[in-house]
Specification:
The protein folds into 2 domains: about 210 residues, P-loop containing nucleotide triphosphate hydrolases (Rossmann fold); about 60 residues, Alpha-Beta Plaits. Helix content is about 35%, strand content about 25%. The strands form 3 sheets. It has a 6-stranded mixed β-sheet, with helices on both faces. It is elongated and about 75 Å long. The two termini are about 35 Å apart.
Length: about 325
């Protein structure tokens, strides 16, 4: 049996963490090392094992095998201590919409055994961060989606956790509200030094992470700093629309490698930063209906991780 030990440099550490449901392996031998204060992203398609990983790390489900440590504490040794160490913002809100902001947060404070005076001060502090002081006694039914999400996050950090887990925290919000939520999270990270563990489908949000890993079928894939992963992908992404993708692919694969194909669009990774696209455009001529090239982003890293040219379709 694995025993507890101090991992002072890491807010989260796992060794061989596995979760199996019958014959289905949801998370397979997961090894993570997430440093204190790091903004970490775990990315992958639906069903890849992201939420199951969070559930194991936050004691919502037990691991089949392997171990995990949160802030030097062995998760399996004392789940109650772990629950006081972590904050969790679920995909679906944990708030009661028929109650006011204050009632929801006071209820959460009582669950964390915060004395009333300390709870009041902390609620004031968080509502100030989120710009919700004047709505403290307003029922959640009367708030916007972004405001309700802000209250969800306030609930998650009410007890000053060392690690905050954000499981698809901005799903369903418009761009303006998503940006506002991330400003709030960044302010909390800066002021309180929390480690943040994120899962998201909005990969432009994950670009702000210090480190991201990809997970598929429960197995950890390539990872690194987002800007480094983007640089490693190539200098450009070339996107071509054509009525004859087989012919264009046959011409260009020897130059650029296998493309990702989606219907009549081909996407190629271009390594050379000085490639002459205008010349290529002249060469292809009327064989293509449109052609564009752009700098890669984290969405492209994701696609090339989970959509192999051999498969031809995104996972």
């Amino acid at each position: 049996m694995l025993t507890a030990y101090v991992v002072s440099d890491f807010a989260i550490k796992t060794r061989g963490l596995t979760k199996q449901y019958g014959q289905t392996v949801a998370v397979n031998e997961l090894d993570l090392e997430i440093k204190i204060g790091q903004f970490y992203g775990l990315l992958g398609p639906n069903g890849a094992g992201k939420s199951t990983t969070i559930h194991m790390l936050t004691t919502m489900t037990t691991a089949t095998s392997g171990e995990a440590w949160i802030a030097d504490q062995l998760v399996s040794a004392d789940p109650v201590v772990i629950r006081g160490t972590v904050g969790l913002v679920f995909q679906d809100s944990a708030l009661d919409r028929t109650m006011t902001i204050d009632e929801n947060l006071q209820f959460a404070a009582a669950m964390y055994n915060l004395p009333p005076q300390i709870a009041d001060k902390r609620i004031d502090e968080l509502l100030s961060v989120f710009g919700l002081q004047e709505k403290r006694n307003v029922k959640l039914l009367a708030l916007s989606g972004g405001q309700r999400r802000a209250v969800d996050i306030a609930r998650g950090v009410l007890h000053r956790p060392k690690v905050l887990f954000l499981d698809e925290p901005t799903i369903g919000l418009d761009l303006a509200n998503r940006r506002a939520i991330w400003r709030f999270v960044e302010q909390l990270r800066r002021n309180e030094g929390m480690t943040v563990f994120l899962t998201t489908h909005y990969l432009e949000e994950a670009a702000a992470c210090d480190h991201v890993d990809f997970i598929q079928h429960g197995k950890l894939q390539q990872g690194g700093a987002p800007h480094e992963l983007i640089e490693q992908l190539g200098a450009y992404v070339l996107e071509i629309n054509t009525a004859d993708p087989e012919n264009i692919a046959a011409q260009l694969t020897p130059l650029f490698g296998d493309p990702i194909r989606e219907d009549q669009q081909l996407s190629f990774k271009i390594s050379a930063s000085d490639f002459n696209f205008s010349e290529l455009q002249k060469t292809l001529g009327d064989a293509v209906s449109s052609m564009q090239w752009r700098r890669p982003n984290l969405n492209d890293v994701y696609l090339w991780t989970f959509c192999s040219p051999e498969q031809g379709e995104a996972v």
